[in-house]
Amino acid sequence: MSGYNPYDNVLATLERAANILGYEPSDYEILKHPERSLKVAVPVRMDDGSVKVFDGYRVQHSTVRGPAKGGLRYHPDVNLMEVSALAAWMTFKCAVVGIPYGGGKGALAVDPSKLSKNELKNLTRSFTTMIAPIIGPETDIPAPDLGTNAEVMGWIVDTYSMLKGYPNPGVVTGKPIELGGSLGRGEATGRGITITAKNALKALGREIKGATVAVQGMGNVGSVSAKLIHAEGAKVVAVSDISTGIYNAGGLNIPEILTFVAGGKNLLKDYKGDVEFIDNAQLLTLDVDLLVPAAMENMINGDNARDIRAKLIVEGANGPTTVEADAILEGKGIPVIPDILANAGGVVVSYFEWVQNNQKFYWDEETVNQRLEALMNEAFQSVWGIAQEKKVTVRTGAYLIAVKKIVETLRMKGSI
Ligand code: NAD
Q: pLDDT digit string (tens) for 348-364?
């Protein structure tokens, strides 16, 4: 899969939706290009006194429907194309679920596990200072993603607030509760995936209770998805992280596994429960009712899509399925509930967090979860409905809704 460019994936999907909608190329040309891309070289003094410099990025794909919104990723292999693709997916995701944001994404090319906490904090402070000219509560609002968490968001709030000279909690979402975070945000992406999985299984004529499930990735998204899907009475037979997969045909002991991996403290390869060890490739091709890829992009691709036996895929990660794999899965009749719908719970509750920050009035967790569920249910019904009506894949259905909303906004503004 070398040479794979996820931005090509974005363009292909956009093109397909625009054609079905009958748009002229001039209607959506704007959406093919990220509005603004910033590359920075971020210095940090290491604990041994040396200075290292890491590449950092912040891309604002679109601010047509509102401020750019999207996570910050810390991973050694990130590059501008990947960040641009992730930013574009945020534009479409926010449009699908109807929240008033555009799309953005940022990244630092660093392996956070190789830095001490002090080094990571200082690196985050430098990075924040260097992207501060383009982020802000009214312009571009980062959040956690792969390799970052609430603590990192707390350092960003503090640095940005120092630069501005007054408290600025709304500059990021996914922050600690003490700094203005929202109740329910930590679990929101996994909760949204669970709601969507339930809706999709129901639309296919079956219940989540008793369904067999495999989840790839045991980070924020994968672990909460496994927890809540298990709590719905499904039989989670396999989960994995970067070190290994584990399998038990009778169902894994999810609460015990979650305690074992909580907060990234242990890798599954060291788990001692009643399980069979399998690799990630085997996990993806298990014969299950539901597969949730919740690790990284590009995991289901032209090399393995033909071997997929799951009856339904609900995308937890961003971009886990390549365009080539999508076509193969469509041919096999396996529905794929796309990332821009399935994992939108995180950005929905990020939006709720930002609203609470702006109002300076905080909601209880039940209110957050109820509003999330209502919004995810509505988004699923409209996407599923249009996919059925137009006889297209669920992914194309989601893009039809998103692209239409954005192009209509461009028209209203007189931009096209
Ligand atoms: P995380 O860093 O908390 O966890 C990632 C997990 O994936 C870890 O268990 C890691 O071991 C595993 N992993 C990494 N590389 C792997 C590989 N090559 N094979 C198998 N497993 C691998 O990240 P996260 O926040 O859970 O995000 C996971 C995905 O979900 C990303 O694509 C992210 O963009 C997307 N996402 C995250 C959120 C959020 O709220 N955190 C919201 C929407 C989408």
A: 999 999 999 999 999 99
